User: Which sequence fits this backbone?
């Protein structure tokens, strides 16, 4: 069956999960390590646009996009064509052995779309965590300073170094140490939970004072920050926070590393979340939406910093795989041609209206936040700011049972987040939001 002709509508033909999903889940329990968990056991057979079809033939609305990866939709015809063509030509040489144009072209595209018009260089990797690790390697090498400053609620990955950079113990780190040294954590600007009226500049000063007193500028090589935090709860810092940090970095020879693995590539209504306040990072890490579902990640940065690393100091067997590269080139072209940044802004306006309506009608929604097609609700016990993780869990499960894929997140697990494909139709978005609204009413009434 041609995936491209899947109707963009939700359609349930069994209870969820259906019998074939249940069968697969039984096989899974006997074969797959349970440390790798899934939000809900609906096994996918196909996808197109913002619809996933499960093995029982149910059509689900995808409001998670595989964690902000499928921004141009599932099975986009341009990706299918580019990948099929490349696989038939060659699928691997290792760029460090026998180079190819596709890798070069992705680095050219990254130089063009990432913030700032300075001279840039890029290196390609396989995952977001690997990109963040390499950004730290490069920053340490370029500055000769080992200290890495990260933020409360940060998520940067699951490898040993990135576990150290990630804030939350459960489930990411528990009993998996010892962790890498020379990692220092400072408070994030979190307007909903910071002292009332704290400005972005004041929140930056709070962080900077700690860095200067506890780490010392001369020991600090880089500061790694998500301009809008993802797994930590879609935390949008107060205006002025990022520019003040970037300014302090510039004045002190500390590299400002923006981890835009989740926020990048049109998700927030700009090409990158840093663009919103005109912040130009020294290094930027990208992955997720970059390659339309193929595993690809990058570090892009100021040429002088990137070029400080000796020949052979960066690389890997699969980094910049040619199939992933052509998928990235096709994705970036679709984002440019169809102006998916504008689509993200339209989605954001629609989602915000629905979520604000729910917040006005119900007790227990502490905060609505996000930017563009990256929006979330923070659930709290009515009349308090005490996190209510149980409400978030019930809502995500209820949405799944009704055929809408949503995700939770947050340091306290009390946040429901929406990351729809940017190509979602108005009708599908409206239906998905109606299901979400029902689930929220049921959970909070
Ligand atoms: C997902 C994510 C990562 C890790 O990416 P992987 O591809 O899962 O290794 C790193 N940083 C941020 C901000 C992320 O959202």
Assistant:
């Amino acid at each position: 069956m041609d995936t491209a002709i899947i109707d963009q509508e939700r359609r349930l033909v069994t209870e969820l999960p259906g019998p074939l999903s249940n069968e697969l889940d039984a096989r899974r329990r006997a074969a797959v390590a349970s440390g790798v968990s899934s939000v809900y056991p609906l096994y996918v057979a196909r996808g197109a646009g913002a619809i996933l079809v499960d093995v029982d033939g149910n059509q689900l609305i995808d409001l998670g996009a595989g964690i902000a990866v499928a921004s141009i939709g599932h099975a986009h015809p341009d990706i299918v064509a580019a990948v099929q063509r490349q696989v038939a030509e060659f699928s691997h040489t290792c760029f460090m052995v026998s180079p190819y144009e596709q890798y070069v072209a992705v680095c050219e595209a990254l130089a063009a779309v990432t913030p700032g018009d300075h001279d840039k260089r890029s290196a390609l990797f396989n995952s977001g965590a690997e990109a963040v690790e390499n950004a730290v390697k490069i920053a340490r090498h370029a500055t000769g300073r080992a200290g890495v400053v990260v933020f409360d609620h940060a998520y940067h990955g699951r490898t040993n170094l990135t576990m150290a950079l990630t804030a939350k113990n459960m489930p990411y780190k528990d009993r998996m140490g010892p962790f890498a040294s020379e990692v220092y954590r400072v408070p994030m600007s979190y307007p909903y939970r910071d002292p009332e009226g704290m400005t972005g500049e004041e929140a930056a000063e709070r962080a900077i004072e700690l860095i200067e007193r506890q780490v010392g500028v001369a020991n600090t090589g880089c500061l790694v920050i998500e301009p809008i935090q993802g797994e930590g709860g879609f935390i949008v810092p107060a205006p002025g926070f990022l520019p003040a940090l970037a300014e302090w970095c510039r004045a002190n020879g500390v590299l400002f590393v923006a981890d835009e693995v989740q926020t990048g590539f049109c998700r927030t209504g700009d090409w990158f979340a840093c663009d919103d306040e005109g912040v130009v990072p020294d290094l930027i890490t990208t992955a997720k939406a970059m390659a339309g579902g193929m595993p690809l990640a990058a570090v892009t940065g100021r040429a002088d910093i990137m070029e400080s690393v000796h020949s052979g100091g960066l690389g890997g067997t699969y980094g910049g795989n040619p199939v992933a590269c052509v998928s990235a080139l096709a994705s970036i072209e679709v984002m440019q041609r169809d102006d998916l940044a504008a689509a993200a802004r339209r989605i954001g306006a629609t989602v915000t209206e629905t979520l604000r309506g729910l917040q006005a009608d119900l007790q227990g929604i502490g905060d609505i936040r996000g930017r563009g097609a990256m929006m979330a609700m923070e659930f709290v016990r009515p009349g308090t700011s005490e996190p209510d993780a149980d409400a978030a869990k019930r809502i995500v499960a209820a949405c799944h049972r009704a055929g809408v894929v949503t995700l939770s997140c947050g340091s306290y697990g009390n946040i429901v987040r929406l990351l729809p494909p940017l190509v979602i139709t108005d009708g599908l978005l409206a239906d998905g939001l109606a299901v979400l609204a029902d689930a929220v009413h049921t959970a909070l009434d």
